[in-house]
């Protein structure tokens, strides 16, 4: 029996002197101004008899359970501890430390020493971290234009700068991220400072999306996110395209203006220029709409010669006075051609009409007669067109084809006609012309013969003999012979008395001039008759009449 009592007493002593301690620290984070509770003994519902809290090795507060609680537990009343700490610190019955209105100065490592009613002790470490923020997180994007809903707008080709700032204690992490059509949530840039910015040069439509800046407190792990949506406006470099298309009624016309490739959708306006155009357009508006394709139908009563119809494109990316536009000036048709045409029966003739002035282009047709009957192409008529030239070819012409033809051009402004009169002549009409041509050719031939005769007798005409003395003067021949031996004879020619016809005669003596060797050879080849004639000529003196 004594042995059992001794073992029980030893066990009680060992249990009373046991010390419980934790190997890890409890981390408690609080923001300035918060109420924080630092736990101490959390093993069971035992109320500690004495609890002491120390901060960084210095005691900050100490206390124990009330005397009644100690008596109920069979323990002596706890001794009076040091005075309680500041009113912000309060020791609870379970040994926990309550701190009111935490400040950054409360931050540190706390140690709790607890004595339990069974004479055992317990220690617990608590790390109090005071963290604030992120706060005052702000983003700015420039240069941009803000819409009424807060969305930001940048224009293609500009340079956009993004900035994010915030404050956190003790530290923070700032991160810019982007979420667009082709990306989910890409991180762009990050830093641990108090501000962060980045720049996008030559902004393109692909940069359109949501930009977010997140400020993260590295201690409290609190995060604040600020987002903004950016739109990129742009317009095509080209001007709008103006077109026209005919309506079922030729006196109506449909004008169409298209300007694709702009974001957001532009505003198109059809109108008429009035007066001199300056920086701002002045005129009368026909139609306006937020669209990239606008059509308007107009009739002849609203159109006139020289009228300028214009389509103006308006867009936020275009400055005032720099709108892009397209226009055309209206002109009525003006067909041109030969008004009179003559053709020979049983032949073919082509009537030509040119119309290249009208805007919009006119519809040109050939018609026949005062009733302006439509000409249908076939075996009789051939129609062809080469650009603005419209040709009508009439085959196997007869007298029935004679008459007036009309080249009729019509556009929404007016109708204009070219009147062409075709005259058909039979082949007998040309008989007189053929005879006239023959007579003219005969006269020309006679003139040529006479001229040739006069030219051949020009030396007699020049000597005054005329045409009547041709036979009389046939025996008077004067030959000039060129010789290699230049010998000059200056003998005086005796003057003979006047003849009965009143003319003067001069005695001319013909002297033989020595000839060259080749001339001697030629004279040797002459016939005996020629030598005899030469001798006779040498022996007589010839009379030459001037």
Description:
There is one protein chain. The radius of gyration is 66 Å and the shape is rod-shaped. It has a 6-stranded mixed β-sheet, with no helix packed on it. The chain is built from 6 helices and 35 strands. A hairpin with a 4-residue loop joins β27 (363-368) and β28. The chain has 546 residues and is mostly beta strands.
Helix content: 10-25%
User: How much β-strand is present in the residues?
Assistant: 35-45%
Strand tally? 35
- Give the N-terminus to C-terminus distance in angstroms: 208 Å
Which regions contain 5 or more consecutive residues with pLDDT less than 50? 1-23, 66-85, 470-478, 485-493, 515-546
What general form does the structure show?
A: rod-shaped
Please supply descriptive tags for the structure shown above.
546 residues, mainly beta, six-stranded mixed beta sheet, five-stranded mixed beta sheet, 6 helices, 35 strands, 13% helix, disordered N terminus, disordered C terminus
Q: How do the helices and strands line up, and which of them pair or pack?
A:
Layout: H1 2-16, E1 19-30, E2 36-38, E3 50-55, E4 58-64, H2 67-72, E5 89-91, E6 97-99, E7 108-115, E8 121-130, E9 132-142, E10 145-146, E11 152-155, E12 160-169, E13 172-180, E14 186-191, E15 195-200, E16 209-217, E17 223-233, E18 241-246, E19 252-258, E20 267-273, E21 283-290, E22 293-299, E23 308-314, E24 324-329, E25 340-344, E26 349-354, E27 363-368, E28 373-374, E29 381-386, E30 389-394, E31 403-410, E32 415-425, H3 431-456, H4 458-462, E33 495-496, E34 505-508, H5 517-524, H6 528-539, E35 542-545
Parallel strand pairs: 1-8, 11-17, 25-32
Antiparallel strand pairs: 2-6, 3-4, 3-7, 5-6, 7-8, 9-12, 10-11, 12-15, 13-14, 13-16, 16-17, 18-19, 19-22, 20-21, 20-23, 23-24, 26-30, 27-28, 27-31, 29-30, 31-32, 33-34, 34-35
